[in-house]
TrEMBL record:
Annotated gene: LOC110588963
CDD domains attached to this UniProt entry: HAD_dREG-2_like (cd16415)
Protein name, per record: Haloacid dehalogenase-like hydrolase domain-containing protein 3
One Pfam family hit: Hydrolase
Family the entry assigns: Belongs to the HAD-like hydrolase superfamily.
Gene3D superfamilies: HAD superfamily/HAD-like, Haloacid dehalogenase-like hydrolase
Organism listed in the record: Neomonachus schauinslandi
SUPFAM superfamilies cross-referenced by the UniProt entry: HAD-like
Secretion signal span: none
Domain of life of the native organism: Eukaryota
GO cellular component: nucleus
Length: 224
C-alpha cells in the first residue's frame, strides 16, 4: 500500500499521521480554549495557528520555527474558494428558497473569515446576514447564538428553521430554542441513537430535499 505524505519546506509527514494528529489537536484545543479562546485572550487566528503547531508536534515534527510559516499559509489558504467544496445542490437550493421568499441567514461555529469565504464561493448574496460564533461570543449549541440570530432576523422561533449536519450542535441546539430543525445526513450510516431520535421527515439526505421538507411545515414564510 502506498503511503501519502505531506512535503513542505523540507518537512515530510505521513498524511494519515497528520490527519490523526489534527483531529487530536483540534479536540484538545476546543476543550481547552472553546470558541477560539476569545474569553481567554486569544484571537481566532492565533487559535488556528496553535492547532497547526500542535498537529505537527503530535505527528513528530518538533521544529516549531519550521512549522510557523506553514501554519500561516494554511490559515490564509482556507480563505480561498479552492479549499472548499460545495454540497451538491447548494446553489440551486439557495436560489429556489430566495425565489419563494424564504429569508436566509448563516449561523456557524466559525471565525471572521466566513464572510469572505462565502463571497468568494458566490454564496454571500443569498443571505441576509452571517452570524459566526466568533462574532456572537457563543458557539452552537449554546441557545444564546440561536436567540441572537432570531433577534437579527426579527422572527419568532416557531417561524424559523435551522438546517445543519451536527446532531448535537445544529439539530438539538435549534430544537432547544423552539425552532424547526433539520439534519443533513451524508452517505455514511447514521448512528442508530441519532436515527431513532430524529423524525424521518427531519432527515435530509441532501440539500435538494430541503424545499419538499419545508412544504410539509405549516405556516410561512420561514427564516432559515
Amino acid at each position: 500500500m502506498k503511503k501519502h505524505c505531506l512535503r513542505e519546506d523540507g518537512l515530510e509527514v505521513e498524511a494519515a499521521a497528520l490527519g490523526h494528529a489534527f483531529r487530536q489537536a483540534y479536540r484538545t484545543q476546543s476543550h481547552s480554549f472553546p470558541n477560539y479562546g476569545l474569553s481567554q485572550g486569544l484571537t481566532s487566528r492565533q487559535w488556528w495557528l496553535d492547532v497547526v503547531l500542535h498537529t505537527f508536534q503530535l505527528a513528530g515534527v518538533r521544529d516549531a520555527q519550521a512549522v510557523a510559516p506553514i501554519a500561516e499559509r494554511l490559515y490564509e489558504d482556507f480563505c480561498k474558494p479552492c479549499s472548499w467544496q460545495l454540497l451538491e445542490g447548494a446553489k440551486a437550493t439557495l436560489r429556489q428558497c430566495r425565489e419563494r421568499g424564504v429569508r436566509l441567514a448563516v449561523v456557524s461555529n466559525f471565525d471572521r473569515r466566513l464572510e469572505d469565504i462565502l463571497r468568494a464561493l458566490g454564496l454571500r448574496e443569498h443571505f441576509d446576514f452571517v452570524l459566526t460564533s466568533e462574532a456572537a461570543g457563543w458557539p452552537k449549541p449554546d441557545p444564546r447564538i440561536f436567540r441572537e440570530a432570531l433577534r437579527l432576523a426579527r422572527v419568532d422561533p416557531a417561524g424559523a428553521a435551522h438546517i445543519g449536519d451536527s446532531y448535537h450542535c445544529d439539530y438539538k441546539g435549534a430544537q432547544a430554542v423552539g425552532m424547526h430543525s433539520f439534519l443533513v445526513v451524508g452517505p455514511e450510516p447514521l448512528d442508530p441513537a441519532v436515527k431513532g431520535s430524529v423524525p424521518q421527515e427531519c432527515l435530509l439526505p441532501s440539500l435538494s430535499h430541503l424545499l419538499p421538507a419545508l412544504d410539509r411545515l405549516e405556516g410561512s414564510p420561514l427564516e432559515l
